Amino acid sequence: MTELSVTQLGQTVAAPESPEAAVLEAVPNPQNDVLYLARFVAPEFTSLCPVTGQPDFAHLVIDYAPGDWLIESKSLKLYLTSFRNHGSFHEDCTVKVARKIVEVAKPRWLRIGGYWYPRGGIPIDVFWQTGPAPEGLWVPDQGVAPYRGRG
């Protein structure tokens, strides 16, 4: 990616039917000489259980240190929406989102926390990152409390 070529920003765009059909876009980072962290939070992420077809819900926290490119937020919203009718396990959904961002934006560093709400009585939290955080990068806590139910 070498030039600005956003196709969704400022346009009426239907929700993609699947993650494979979704287009995640990046825009040039005007602060590419600065090491900083950007955070996206998606507290209402949904997908489908690949076995039962029942909905699964997660709170995603995506932290990344941009390089030359930023993830365009409308395209991210549409990409995340594309999972609503997609059957996949929690681990697959979480890592798939992170790897797509890495593919498109090539950040200096990325981590994702997928905090999945219980189904069958078991919450599943999924964490992935590209490697150690760069030295000097301030990485705050993701701010999501562990699931406690009624405890």
Question: What secondary-structure arrangement, pairings included, does this model have?
Answer:
Layout: E1 26-28, E2 38-48, E3 55-65, E4 69-71, H1 73-81, H2 90-105, E5 109-116, E6 125-129
Antiparallel strand pairs: 1-4, 2-3, 3-5, 5-6
Bulk shape: globular
Helical content stands at 10-25%
Strand order of the largest sheet: 2-3-5-6
- Summing up helix and strand content along with how strands pair, one would put the structural category as alpha+beta
Overall average residue pLDDT? 92
Order of helices and strands: EEEEHHEE
How far apart are the termini? 49 Å
CATH class of one domain: Alpha Beta
Low-confidence stretches: none
Task: Please state the CA-atom Rg, rounded to the nearest Å.
Answer: 16 Å
Quick overview of this protein structure:
This protein is 17% helix and 27% strand.
Q: Could you please describe the fold and organization of this structure?
A:
The structure is a single chain. With 151 residues, the protein is of the alpha+beta class. The protein has a domain of 104 residues: GTP cyclohydrolase I, C-terminal domain/NADPH-dependent 7-cyano-7-deazaguanine reductase, N-terminal domain (GTP Cyclohydrolase I, domain 2). The protein is built from two helices and six strands, in the order ββββααββ. A four-stranded antiparallel sheet has the order 2-3-5-6, covered by helices on one side. The mean pLDDT is 92.
